[in-house]
Amino acid sequence: MSSRDEQVRTAGGRPAALLAVRISPSDVGRRVTVRHRIDGSQLTDVVGVLRSWADGVLRVERRTGEVVAVAARDVVAAKVVTPELSATAMQRVAQAGWPPFETASLGEWELRASGGLTGRANSVRVVGDPGVPLEDALAHVSAWYAERSLPAILQLPEPSLWDDDLERLGWTPARRTTLRTVPTADLVAACGPVPDGVGAELSADPSPELLALVEPSLDPEGLARILAAPAERVFVALRGTDGGLLAAGRASTASSPAGRWAGVTSVAVAEHARRRGLGTAVMGELGRWAAAVGAPSTYLQVMAANEPAIALYARLGLVLHHTYVYRSPGPISSR
Asked: Mind telling me which InterPro entries this protein's record contains (predicted)?
């Protein structure tokens, strides 16, 4: 069965939707959603892991363990969907895309420090049991960060089993960030090509010009160290006909128990170039790179208060996976 588009009509004969088959036998092992006909005309959906595709039959295993056999000729729409991972598992994936300079373990908690460059790289990734009573764990955390002249900050998916006790001990929420996901193929389809008159440059390392655009308030040397740390990464720069930098972004890959992910970070558009669709164009270039390197799922992180960015990403198909919060016994910076 080759990829195809098909209009499914309602009972009144009007076109209801344009459906596309965007999977192939190469997607065996991935989580998919398949819309197919039963009894000749009725449509139904099955979501699960594509276990096999042979002799004209797809076999999809649901979460319950049930395996549904679907004749390829009956499929009218199908696509890869993001794998089911817990918030803590996705936090591990995200850390691989934004790795800290230094780490230390406290039971299952992971302490991270990077000279104060962003909260993600200078906070405790709280998962599981620290191995000691909570008060002792917090004292250890505070001392460890004080040795590095950094504030003590915890990063926790929300809600967390620790929330009530942390509130009682004065570790209050400072800010919230959302992690959003999308099948890479859907992201590419939503973005379209780079606009006319704009050129795209892809590189493995960031230029000083790109760093100044995407994170102007951060130390460029330390930022470059974080951004260039993943082994598989790309930096996209969009330039106008005069060579000026209009927009930029970065992506890297990471593995998980449910497959490979591309993580998008540092998307920025120059102030004079906004409202021209260049943020979408950067996302499209990063999505095409992710598809080319075999990452079927893409994620990004964006502050919960950044409503314009969230609206853009929603239009591109990114949906909320989870929210996480930073907690501290005192005020912390906006980053």
From this structure: Acyl_CoA_acyltransferase, GNAT_dom, Rv0428c-like_C, SH3_Rv0428c
Look up residue 210 and give its two tokens.
Answer: 């790109």
Residue carrying structure tokens 């790309």:
234
Residues 230 and 298 in one domain: yes
- The secondary structure element, H or E, covering residue 89 is helix 87-97
330 located within any domain? no
Looking at 80, 108, 141, which one is the last position of a domain?
A: 80
* Cα gap 251→118, rounded to integer Å: 17
Q: Which domain holds residue 37?
A: 5-80
**CA 244 to CA 239: how far, in whole Å?**
5
What are the tens digits of pLDDT across the range 33-68? 999 998 877 999 999 989 999 999 999 999 889 999
Place of tokens 């919960």: 304
* Domain end marker among 61, 80, 99: 80
pTM of this structure: 0.81
Q: What pLDDT does residue 39 have?
A: 83
